Each structure stands twice: as structure tokens, then as C-alpha cells.
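Sequence, please.
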């Protein structure tokens, strides 16, 4: 090599912990989708719960709340959020019965995602364990791993309506366990947790002095007779972090506005409060413009109920999901009670030798539909997939017609396999 020639660059090494992190919602399949679209293919993308991508808009009174205060959005604000926004959140939680809900115990972040990461960073030491639902929203697993913790999964089985067994949760507790995470209503399953179940989980946390972390971002998205039970009032003096935001109920994902409310006995959670405050200060503050919409969102007009009630767009799309799965010989569904997703299972001949990732790729390549493989949500089985309920009902019916075509081909091939093997023999 010529002495004047530059030496080849050594590839930069990345964190070894990333090898344990998966986020297929925006991963390999989504990258392949972009390649197909660049080549001129038209796809129906059901991989992300992103209301704005399906024609939803943030409510007008929230937009006006920001526009009317735009001149006040230039400076940094307090690391925990605008005082008026934190008071609005605290008042909302007080009305629910959350103990010790006060503005100084509210943290506003750039979406719930940032606050999940921040709170786990404040809580965990290397090797500490966090009890997570399986299936989970994979950010919870990723944030636990990236903050030196270890995810330990408690099963939420389809045969139990995707509800957990508190006795199984209790059996997983070790001296390294620090927290129990609940996602209610659940993403990806749509399960809504009844009060009696939550009380039993609170009892486990109380016995072992564990932090409760309640991801309640879908709290207002419920179908038919399903009810939402907030965790913090049941937790009482036990430390509890309740997460909410504008992304889903208020259809404002891009505004990146989330919050966490630290409830329970302030003496028991003082160190965690100070740690979260410090980490919030290190990132200076959350997005300021969106915070001006919080009071209007929590104490203004209810704009989600009409969408989830009979005749509403989300209700009708959910009905289309339930009907399509009931009509298919290849699918089984635990009907979602809340949130924005369905989590069907592939059954029968189509499930023989089934691999959810290979199915998702085939569905996209051959039928132009992007879904998320179920194993992306940290489950031990590979026969589920997730779709979002955000498209119009006719679009979802078309999606499931395409899904049935792929599964019918797979079922036919599986049914023919023994005869082929016999003929060869």
C-alpha cells in the first residue's frame, strides 16, 4: 500500500447489549417495506399504531391550545414540565383517586417512551430484574436491557384472555426483583385488566416492596362493556408510576407528549423522585409546545368515546377484525377489549410448521400487507401476529381476505405433505 494512501477504517464497535434488543415494529420488515415502496409497490401498513398515518387528526381544541401559546414556547421549561401542565395532570389523577398526586410528582417527557427509559435508568443497578408481561410492548424489554437490567416474563396466555396469573407473578420474584410492569389496556393483545386481578398484583408488589409501573397510554380506548381500572388508586401508599400521554387517546403521536405520575408514600419513593428529576434535568426539558395542549386534553371535550362507541370508526374496524377472524378456518382471536390492536393466532393446518416472521414477509411480498410477527412481543410461541385497528373497516376486511389467501395456500401445502411423503416412501 502506498504510504500516502489512507489506512482502511476499522469498523466501529457498538454496544453488545443491542444484540439482545428487538423492535420489529420498525425493524427488518419495515425496511423491506420501504424498499418495495421505492420500487413502486403499494402496501397496506398495519405495523404501527400511528393515528395520523390513517387520517386521524389531533382534536381541534388541542391544536388551538398550542397555537394560542406559540409565543411562549421558545424557552426551556422546568425539567419536569410546565407548571400548569403538571397541575392539570395531577388534578386528572386526583379525580381518579391517585394518592399524593401533586404537580411536583409529575414528570412530562418526550412521549411515554422517553419516560419508560428514564424511570428504568433511575431505578436499576446491573443485574436487577423487572417483571414484564409476555407478550409485552418491546420497548419495555429493550429499556430494561439497555439500563443493565434483566427482563423476567410472566405469561399472559391466550387461553386466559391474555390476563396474567398473580400466583405465577409471585413465583418469579427474587431478591433482585425491583418492579412489576403492567400494560393496561394491553398492547398488543387489547386485554383490559379487571379490578380484582389488579388488587392481587398489588398485593404481590406490597409483600415484596416492589415498584409498580403502569403503562396506561390506552386508558380511554375501550370497546363495548370493557372498563378501565387505574392502578395507582389500588396501590395506595405503595410506590407506583403511572404513564399516560397524548399519542393514542388524543391522536397526537408526533407531538411527543407523555407523562409519568409518581404516587404512593413520598417517603418511600423520595430517592426515585430525585433520580428521575436529575435525569430529566440532564436532557434539559421535554418538547414545550405540546405541553400547552395537556390541560385541554385532560379537562376538555372527550373526543375518543365517539370513535370507540357503536358506529364509531374504531368500533367498526374492531368489529371487522372480530368477524374476519371468526369467519376464517385459519385464525383464532381473543377479541381486544381496548387499545388499537388485534393479536390473532394462526391455527389448524396453516399453523403446521408456521413461522410468524416468514409469514409476515410472505404476506408483504405477495399480498402487499405489512404486519408485525407475534414473537416480536417476547412470547415463546410463533403463531401470532399483530395488526392495528386504525384503518377503515373495509380496508381491514380486504387485509384479512389477503391474509386468508396466504394461510389457505399454507394450509393446502401442509395438508398435502403427508401424501407426498407417503408417495416418496
Amino acid at each position: 500500500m502506498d504510504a500516502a494512501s489512507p489506512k482502511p477504517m476499522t469498523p466501529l464497535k457498538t454496544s453488545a447489549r443491542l444484540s439482545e434488543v428487538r423492535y420489529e415494529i420498525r425493524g427488518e420488515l419495515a425496511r423491506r417495506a420501504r424498499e418495495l415502496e421505492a420500487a413502486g409497490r403499494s402496501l397496506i401498513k398495519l405495523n404501527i399504531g400511528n393515528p395520523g398515518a390513517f387520517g386521524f387528526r389531533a382534536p381541534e381544541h388541542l391544536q388551538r391550545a398550542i397555537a394560542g401559546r406559540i409565543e411562549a414556547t421558545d424557552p426551556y421549561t422546568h425539567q419536569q414540565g410546565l407548571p400548569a401542565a403538571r397541575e392539570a395532570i395531577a388534578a386528572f389523577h386526583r379525580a381518579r383517586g391517585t394518592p399524593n398526586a401533586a404537580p411536583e410528582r409529575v414528570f412530562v417527557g418526550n412521549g411515554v417512551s422517553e419516560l419508560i427509559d428514564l424511570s428504568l435508568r433511575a431505578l436499576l443497578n446491573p443485574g436487577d430484574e423487572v417483571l414484564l408481561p409476555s407478550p409485552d410492548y418491546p420497548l419495555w424489554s429493550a429499556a430494561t436491557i439497555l439500563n443493565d437490567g434483566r427482563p423476567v416474563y410472566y405469561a399472559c396466555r391466550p387461553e386466559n384472555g391474555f390476563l396474567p396469573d398473580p400466583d405465577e407473578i409471585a413465583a418469579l420474584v427474587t431478591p433482585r426483583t425491583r418492579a412489576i410492569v403492567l400494560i393496561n389496556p394491553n398492547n398488543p393483545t387489547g386485554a383490559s385488566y379487571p379490578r380484582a386481578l389488579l388488587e392481587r398484583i398489588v398485593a404481590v408488589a406490597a409483600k415484596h416492596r416492589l415498584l409498580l409501573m403502569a403503562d396506561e397510554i390506552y386508558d380511554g380506548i375501550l370497546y363495548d362493556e370493557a372498563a378501565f381500572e387505574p392502578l395507582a388508586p389500588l396501590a395506595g401508599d405503595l410506590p407506583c408510576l403511572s404513564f399516560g400521554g397524548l399519542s393514542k387517546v388524543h391522536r397526537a403521536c408526533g407531538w411527543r407528549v407523555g407523562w409519568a405520575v409518581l404516587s404512593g408514600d413520598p417517603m418511600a419513593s423520595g430517592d426515585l423522585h430525585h433520580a428521575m428529576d436529575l435525569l430529566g434535568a440532564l436532557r434539559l426539558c421535554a418538547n414545550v409546545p405540546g405541553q400547552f395542549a395537556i390541560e385541554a386534553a385532560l379537562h376538555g371535550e372527550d373526543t375518543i368515546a365517539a370513535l370507540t362507541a357503536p358506529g364509531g370508526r374504531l368500533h367498526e374496524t374492531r368489529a371487522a377484525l372480530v368477524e374476519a377472524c371468526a369467519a376464517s378456518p385459519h385464525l383464532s382471536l381473543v377479541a381486544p377489549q381496548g387499545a388499537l390492536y388485534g393479536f390473532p393466532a394462526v391455527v389448524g393446518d396453516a399453523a403446521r410448521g408456521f413461522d410468524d416472521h416468514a409469514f409476515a414477509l410472505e404476506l408483504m411480498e405477495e399480498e402487499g400487507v405489512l404486519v408485525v410477527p407475534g414473537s416480536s412481543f417476547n412470547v415463546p410461541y410463533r403463531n401470532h401476529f399483530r395488526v392495528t385497528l386504525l384503518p377503515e373497516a373495509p380496508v381491514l376486511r380486504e387485509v384479512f381476505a389477503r391474509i386468508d389467501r396466504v394461510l389457505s395456500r399454507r394450509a393446502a401445502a401442509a395438508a398435502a405433505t403427508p401424501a407426498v411423503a407417503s408417495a416418496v416412501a
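The first strand starts at residue 44 and ends at 45.
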